[in-house]
């Protein structure tokens, strides 16, 4: 897991109003402005790993590929979309 890539993503996420904390598991991200279904706020842990097609990508804790690590802005947009939904909204499709 690349700490540098996760730090770049953390910067993009915090500029979008999300809380991002680097932990031993990855980048823990939450949205303090939205009430979560299973906790106080919706959140996920982002990790970096190699994709099937090659290259490293950002992935959510539920296994969604977000974007290549070379595109932290795209990954931040996808995470923001996911974490901006209220619990009763249907999931959005995130294209990776």
Describe the protein's architecture and organization.
The protein has two helices and five strands, in the order αβββββα. With 96 residues, it is of the alpha+beta class. A hairpin with a 5-residue loop joins strand 3 and strand 4. The relative contact order is 0.20.
Which key phrases capture this entry?
96 residues; single chain; alpha+beta; disordered C terminus; five-stranded antiparallel beta sheet
Helix and strand arrangement:
Blueprint: H1 3-15, E1 19-22, E2 27-30, E3 43-50, E4 56-59, E5 65-68, H2 72-83
Antiparallel strand pairs: 1-2, 2-3, 3-4, 4-5
Number of helices: 2
Which descriptor suits the 3D outline?
globular
**Element-by-element helix/strand order:** HEEEEEH
User: Terminal Cα separation, in Å?
Assistant: 19 Å
Major sheet: order of its strands?
Answer: 1-2-3-4-5
Strand content range? 25-35%
Helix content: 25-40%
Radius of gyration: 12 Å
| Structure class | alpha+beta
Main sheet overview: 5 strands, antiparallel
Quantity of strands, as a count: 5
Low-confidence stretches: 90-96
Mean pLDDT, as a whole number?
A: 82
């Amino acid at each position: 897991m690349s700490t540098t890539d996760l730090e770049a993503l953390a910067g993009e996420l915090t500029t979008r109003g999300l809380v991002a904390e680097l932990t031993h598991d990855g980048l823990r991200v939450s949205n303090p402005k939205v009430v979560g279904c299973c906790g106080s706020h919706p959140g996920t842990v982002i990790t970096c790993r190699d994709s099937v097609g090659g290259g490293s990508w950002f992935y959510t804790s539920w296994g969604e590929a977000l974007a290549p690590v070379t595109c932290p802005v795209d990954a931040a947009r996808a995470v923001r979309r996911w974490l901006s939904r209220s619990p009763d909204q249907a999931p959005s499709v995130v294209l990776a």
